[in-house]
Amino acid sequence: MTSQTGVTRTDTTHTGTVDVLVLGGAGVDTVVHVPELPLPYADSYMIDSGIRTRAGQTGDFVAMGLTALGLRTHHLDLLGDDPEGDLVRALHREHGIGLSALPQPAGTRRAVNLVGPDGRRLSLYDTSRSRPGDRFPEDTLRALATASRHVYVTITQPCAEALPVLAATGVPLSTDLHDWDGENPYHEPFAYAADVVFLSAAALADPERTLRRIAERGRARTVVATAGAEGAYLLADGELTRVPAETPPAPVVDSNGAGDAFAAAFLYGRLAGEPPETCARYGALAGAYACTVPASRADAMGRDRLLQAAAEPRP
Questions:
Q1: What global pTM score does this model have?
Q2: pLDDT tens for residues 11-70?
Q3: Residue 19 included in any domain
Q4: Which residue range forms the structural domain that includes residue 244?
Q5: Which residues form the signal peptide (predicted)?
Q6: CB of 108 within 8 A of CB of 60?
Q7: Cα separation of 270 and 201, whole Å?
Q8: Half-sphere exposure of 79 (CA within 13 A, CB side)
Q9: In a 3-state reduction of DSSP, which class is residue 41?
Q10: What CATH code is carried by the domain that includes residue 266?
Q11: What is the distance between the alpha carbons of residues 62 and 41, in angstroms, rounded to a whole number?
């Protein structure tokens, strides 16, 4: 169904109060398993495992993770009238995720993920699938945000322009800065507007310094930097703690989506009223599970499995 604002609603089951509105980050990935990363130059490679295209980028994975944990979730983004957009719409229908899709004439976001034998990935993003004038209609954005307990904002365009409208609603915000180096100015509006900030420690020379700067300059009282097998750094109300990594329940095959799973599970704990340390353990457990899911498949840790794992003592 398409409204007068051009919003296509592919799911009408979330017309009441929503737990989390996910903004942006919808798209499609083409996954290629390669023999090693970095990939040495060669005229050609034979990919015996196949080359697969499936729906699922950062916003999709967060929305899927939240829904698997029992939270009422709605996703707002721009999608093209193209095969990639059809895959994204089908993913949301399959998992019961509410989706409001605005038309994107430039097409649905897409990327190519090269995945190494150890699960590491190299992502190639097609930046031609956006336009400088892209915007979310303020009335649509405000209506969905005020009907939500929380808004998770991806750093994809045009989410930066949506931040003032979201801030005016007073709804708590979270975001993931991904592999921010602590210097790129593009990430700063997101870092300083959110109440909860996630990022990867991969590009940070001094994670604690970056976490404290985010807290000092912005609204966040909780900042988390994930560090893969080394766990995570949690800054909550000025106190920095280290969060141990959790043992994956199966062999690690792909790290794609681990950060999104961490964020979804952390927010699940936060909305349930759990302390930051418990939220971070939820995130670590869901992130470890995500590393066992092949890149060609879209899957997320369910609530029962998460709570069962969290109840077990650490080794």
A1: 0.91
A2: 433 345 899 999 999 999 999 999 999 999 999 999 998 999 999 999 999 999 999 999
A3: yes
A4: 8-311
A5: none
A6: no
A7: 22
A8: 31
A9: coil
A10: 3.40.1190.20
A11: 34
